[in-house]
Amino acid sequence: MNTNDSAATRYTTLTSDSIHELEIKRSRFITYLFRVETEAAARAHIAALRKTHFDARHHCSAFILGPDRIVQRSNDDGEPSGTAGIPMLDALAKREMPDASVLSDVLAVVVRYFGGIKLGAGGLVRAYSDAVSSGLENAQLHLRQRLRIFAFTASHAQAARYENELRAAGYQVEPTEWQAQHAIVRIGIPDTEQAAQELHTHIATLTSGAATLNSTNTQWVDLI
Predict the structure, then answer these.
(1) Which end of the chain has fewer CB atoms surrounding its CB within 10 Å, N or C?
(2) What torsion do the CA atoms of 203, 207, 208, 212 make, to the nearest 10 degrees?
C-alpha cells in the first residue's frame, strides 16, 4: 500500500495502544485498541490476544487501514453474524473528530467473557459498539498528515538564520544537510497547492529572490 499516492492528506490515529473494560449483564467486554499499518500486524495482535485470553469465549475484531481507509475488515468470532464485528467496524469508521479528519490505522479487539445472561442480537450490537466507542473515548489520538518536502540551497552563513525565521513563521523545518560548499535547507508543508504557493512566496521574500525552491518528496508525520 503506497500511502504517498492516497487522495487523503491527513487522518487521525492512535497515539498509543489502550485497554478499556465494560461490564454488561455480567459479561466482561475488554476492548484493546492498537495502532497498526498492515493486515499482518493486525492479525498478529489478534492471535496474541487469543493466547493471552485463551479462556474467553469470543475475540471479536475490526480494523481500518490506510489514509483512504481502503482496507476494512471485521470478524464476529462466534457471535451471531453481524452482531459484533460490523458494529465494531462502524464505531471505528463513524468516529467523529473535532477537526473533521477520519480515523484509520487502528485495530479494535473486544474480548468477551460470557457472564451467563444472553443479551440477544440487539443487545450484542449495542454492547460491541459501546465497547469500541468507550475505548476510543478513553484513548489518546493525534493527527497524522502528509507533508510535501521542499528544499533550497543557502550559504553556511545564512542557513541557520533561514531555519530560525522559518520556524518562527510556523513552518516545520526538516534536518538541514550541511555540504562542503553550501547547506540544503528543507521545509515540510501540508501537501496542498495553496500551501506550496504560500511557501514559494515566503521563501522569495525571505531570501530576496536568491533561493530556488524545489519539491523533493512527500512523507507522513505524526502531529503530536
Answers:
(1) C
(2) -60
